[in-house]
EF-hand domain-containing protein (Klebsormidium nitens), 752 residues
Amino acid sequence: MERPLIDSHRNSPGGNNQSAGRESSPNALSIDRRGKAFKTGSKVQQAAALVDIAYDGEGLPESFLDSPHFSEKADYYLFYNAAGPLWLATYAALLLLNFVEIPSWCLTRHEHSCGDPKEYWLGDVPYLPPTVFLIVELVLFVLLAAHVLFPLLYAGPKLYKESPKDAISTGLLLLLGLDIVRQMLFVWTDFPVVELESVRLAPYLRVLIFLVSVKEVRDNLWTVVTIVPNFMDIFILGFVYVAFSSWLAYVLFEDTLQGKEEFTTFSITSLKMVILFTGSNNPDVWQKAYEEHRAYSIFFVVYLLLGLYFLTNLVLAVIFDSFQKQLGQARKAKEANKRRVLSRAFAFVDGDNRGYIDSDQLTGLMHALNLYRAVPHIEKDDMRHIFLALDDSGDYKIQEDEFSDLCDAIGTKFIKLDEPPFLKIVAPGIFNSRAFTAVRDFVKDPRFDRYVMTSILLANLVTVAIETALDMRNLPSQALWQDIEYVFGWIYVLEALLKVSVLGFSNYWRETANRFDFFITWTILIGQTALILDPNQTVANKEWIRYLLIGRMLRLLRLLTYVERYRAIVKTFLKLIPAMGPLFGVLFGFVSLFNSLGIHLFGGLVYESNPLLKSTPLSDHKPYNFNDYSTGMVTLFNLLSEADWQDWMEGYAILGHRALAARTFFLAFMCLGTGLVMNVFVSFVMEAFTVEMETETEAEKAASRSGDGLNLSAERHGANVRPQMSNSDRLMDKMFGEGDGDGDKESGDQGV
């Protein structure tokens, strides 16, 4: 062991470990991207790129790892992933098409026109003319085809055919293309096509392609789908319970006032008992029985206790259990994919197929990994101990399982290497000057956000409160406070510029909180500047600027993280906001599909002059209808809260003369929406909160065992103390043990 496991270029106190890592690995400087590493790098450099991919949650299709054109295909694959923002923007625009498309019932030979928004209670979203809409749809279709068909470049036709996701996406894309061609014939030619615009498939296909093609949304959708069998077990139990209770109620109240006025037939009794199961018509539906004899209330109380308070919570319990099992399976699948990629990385390092790698090969891998992660540099005296900690067999050879332990240590303990700030590249003299070094230390100090920015936010909160109160009273002194708010806007701009200069934009943008701050800051500043230049408010409106000012005060929620009793709650909330994005995508897709169906079934039925409208419960809910896409989305969102949903069901059954269609539509939406999808949401929150509480408890136990000094080190490095010692734990002890106190190593815990 003449050569160390990792080169030991000990930095001077306060030195930059990351830059040292780059300087000690000159060959890595030429490999600035994973794609370039796969294309022109050595096997060791390719192995380092694979290790980084494995712990970033990305996976290479296993079938083309053995391809003779592996490097080129990997380049395509990484480019495909790098173009993620373009694909997401395409899908966002695709979903927005449903909102700006003229409602289908307006283009048919309907008795009434939808030209008057007040007559039909339409939404405020403007519709695109058919020709303009079709051009936009064609452009998005081309981008969509590029995303769906791009895997052919790196996966090849064989893998493409074997992938269910790709096969489904291609089939949906083909259907969408045919539907667009049909629409082109309908709009631009006199070709004799079916003029039933309401049967167009595009509104459904856009949503289905989004659900299938966006990976994060697809994974969450699959989680919901796998829960359906267990959900159906409880659904059948609930169906039997409601059916038996309905029959019992029909027989029990046959000769009573309740039976003569409410439970007149078995079908009506069943429908009203289903509604009572959700609590929407309680206690109105059994008031006649209660007035006739108080003892009749026992039947309904028992029915609600067993149904509303037992079976519905049992549904949640079953879904939560299934959700946890599905998460466990997803973690296992992700771990298996990671192990396959690491196995390939090991094979790349072990070019001679000896079944092990030696210290020289491992040293080369460490050099290459410094391009991606801040792997620390260890003293020579520690190298033998680290190597022995990895070498379980004692043969001075690193086997594949021991190699995985090392990769686990690197992937979970060392932070992702930051991109160098732009200022450091273009003006290194200024960046490394004494004055700017002081600025960097000041901005990076946790006290900058905790004390300086918090004090500014509190002062800004007082300013907003005073200005709002003065504005509501129309007092002229509010102008002064508006000017003060404008000054605060420039302070936040200065904060953003400082952080971008010190951290670099890519590193700054990596944090969700920074994205929120950046967007709010610049939007408010532009709006306030527009108000000063244009007092007539033709460009900007001070009302929505005030809403943004209030939104910026959400940053004060971080104060609660400093209070121990609120820390877990606030952390869970802040983590849930970005983490629930894909699940919101599933909910949006679910509601969108029902919304398109609702427009086809019930579009144009609610209008002011409809003589049947006043005789239906919908006369009190006219703005909430299915006359266009935006109002339909709001209507279905309200129904998710189970607020008088039976009014819409009965109203559309009367207006459309489609009792069976209306009842089937709304019962299916309530069952799947509130019974399945919303319970998955609740399960997600429960799981996240449970994990966060366990993390907090483990951290407290670790702090009590370690003492104040070690606790400070753990807080600085994000280290996670675990009860059992694996090889990767022992490696960490060697790297961050008590005997190594120079403090120049940088680590981070990337997962909960």
